[in-house]
Design goal:
This protein is about 50% helix and about 10% strand. The protein starts with 6 loop residues before the first helix and ends in an 11-residue tail after the last helix. Among the domains are: about 150 residues, Beta Polymerase, domain 2 (2-Layer Sandwich), CATH 3.30.460.10; about 50 residues, no CATH class. The strands form 5 sheets. A 7-stranded mixed β-sheet has the order 3-4-5-2-1-8-9. It is of the alpha+beta class and about 475 residues long. Bound molecules: adenosine-5'-triphosphate and magnesium ion.
């Protein structure tokens, strides 16, 4: 199909093609007598005027040979990383990762995402791509430099903001079901619609997701979560029937029950609203995850008591569920998970600080418990306001603004964030020559609480004296210097 760029888009693409690497590839390919194209995501992103640091080059010939020859023609002779098994090679040029691969034809068997690969034509290579917008190629050889090959109307689909498979979607998705997650992801990232036929096929083939590794699914899910309006992706995942396979806990939040004329809110849609609310405030993936999981304990704690719906202790139950969910989804089981757990556990605490006569002690306690996560916790609480009543939203936000201000003042005064109480377990053990037991925790907490509550001064001396008194209550006496 001949190239039909409008001038505006053409200028943009030409801007991106000004990267000197393309001239080097062009001359090198010509000297080797092979045809080379820039293809896929990079082409899509140039047309959309998004920057993309991954550049994929397809060669009608050996990708590895072209990569090595290109490296020789670059001044600083970058290192070429060769993946012999895949017939690919990559190198870094400035901040771009450039991957070279021979054009290929793929055929799939039903039980695997891994295709049998043979050498192919440019057309074969474009046929194996997932979406029309990802299948465009721009020629780099001198004679045809800058010409677009767009066999499936990717350019038009970009104009129409449409995600569509190049071939029969049932085949494209059944061959490699990861593409189904990618469909939802691109739709959410770019704000594009999924074409009807393509969407029907997502529904039809949903069970094929089961052969995709959880890590890959999590990668795509994280990209959805980091999109500008992440709810769009979750609504599609729900509509396509994917959530029941990849994230059943979230689906459990869905629905409204009625008893004696009392309804509770639909916590699924509420959660999506919280996620959308937090998106413009932060690109921290894990804070966005905390928004997704903040009410995850609600179904397990739901009760109808004295004519009202309650979700008592859902923050603790939810926080406990985080580990299991992270493990199931193969999300990192490290400090990121601990961070999400902590925010879920604490997400109701700032609400208790809204009243006018809130004590410094309560503020100090939150600072102590939330530590470095205090600001993120406040951001989560603000996003958690999903009332449709604008007046209410304004009032609640103003309340939290005051809480933030009070927290700041108390922190400046008392510095309890990341504060370590002066009395440690070791000190208690050595002072009273006792064996480790639960009394140590009781004494430690009593001292910590007294300082946070402002009952004693935050000094070592005051803390030590209180430790002696608290220990005495439990029957312990300080030993003398001779250990008696
Ligand atoms: P992003 O870089 O944002 O993840 P992308 O489209 O560039 O998006 P890559 O994984 O970088 O995705 O892949 C580059 C290109 O390779 C795609 O544009 C597409 O043409 C092709 N591609 C990648 N994954 C698949 C797949 N699972 N099935 C078919 N084609 C794919
Ligand atoms: Mg890419």
């Amino acid at each position: 199909m001949p190239l039909k760029f409008d001038t505006k888009r053409k200028n943009k693409v030409n801007e991106y093609l000004k990267n000197p690497i393309f001239k080097i590839i062009s001359e090198t390919a010509d000297s080797l007598g092979v045809k080379a194209f820039v293809i896929g995501g990079f082409v899509r992103d140039c047309i959309l005027n998004r920057s993309d640091k991954d550049i994929d080059i397809v060669v009608l010939g050996s990708g590895i040979d072209l990569a090595k020859a290109v490296a020789k023609n670059i001044k600083n002779k970058p290192q070429v990383t060769v993946f012999k098994r895949f017939g690919t090679a990559s190198l870094k040029f400035r901040d771009a990762d450039i991957e070279f691969v021979g054009a290929r034809k793929e055929s799939y068997s039903p039980d695997s995402r891994k295709p049998i690969v043979e050498n192919g034509t440019l057309e074969d290579d474009q046929n194996r791509r997932d979406f029309t917008i990802n299948a465009m190629a721009i020629s780099l050889n001198k004679e045809t430099y800058g010409q677009l090959t767009d066999p499936f109307g990717g350019l038009k689909d970009i104009e129409n903001k449409l995600i569509r498979t190049p071939l029969d979607p049932d085949i494209t998705f059944s061959d490699d079901p990861l593409r189904m997650m990618r469909a939802v992801r691109f739709s959410t990232q770019l704000g594009f619609e999924i074409a009807n036929e393509t969407f029907d096929s997502l529904k039809k083939n949903k069970d094929r997701l089961k052969i995709v590794s959880k890590e890959r699914i999590a990668d795509e899910l994280n990209k959805i979560i980091l999109s500008p309006v992440p709810s769009m992706g979750f609504l599609l995942l729900d509509k396509a029937g994917f959530l029941e396979i990849i994230f059943p806990e979230l689906l459990n939040l869905k629905g409204v029950e009625e008893l004696a004329g009392q309804f509770h809110k639909d916590n699924f849609y509420h959660t999506l609203k919280v996620l959308d609310n937090i998106a413009p405030k932060t690109d921290n993936l894990w804070l966005r995850w905390a928004a997704i999981l903040h009410d995850i304990g609600k179904p397990a704690t739901k009760k109808f008591i004295d004519g009202i719906w309650t979700f008592h202790a859902h923050e603790f139950v939810g926080s406990k569920m985080v580990t299991q969910i992270f493990r199931n989804m193969k999300l990192p089981m490290n400090e990121k998970m601990k961070y999400v757990e902590k925010l879920v556990r604490l997400h109701l605490r700032p609400i208790a600080l809204v009243s006018e006569e809130v004590s410094d002690s309560a503020l100090r306690r939150l600072l102590f418990d939330a530590g470095d996560e205090t600001e993120d916790l406040m951001t989560l609480c603000e996003a958690d306001i999903t009332s449709k009543n604008e007046e209410k939203v304004k009032r609640f936000l103003e309340n939290f603004r005051i809480v933030r201000q009070k927290l700041k003042e108390v922190e400046e005064k008392d510095k309890v964030r990341n504060w370590q109480p002066p009395i440690t377990g070791d000190l208690i053990i050595s002072t009273f020559n006792m064996n480790p037991n639960k009394d140590i925790g009781i004494i430690k907490d009593a001292v910590k609480d007294a300082i946070l509550d402002g009952i004693i001064e935050n000094t070592y001396q005051a803390a030590f004296e209180l430790m002696l008194r608290e220990a005495e209550k439990l029957g312990y006496k300080q030993i003398d210097k001779n250990g008696k």
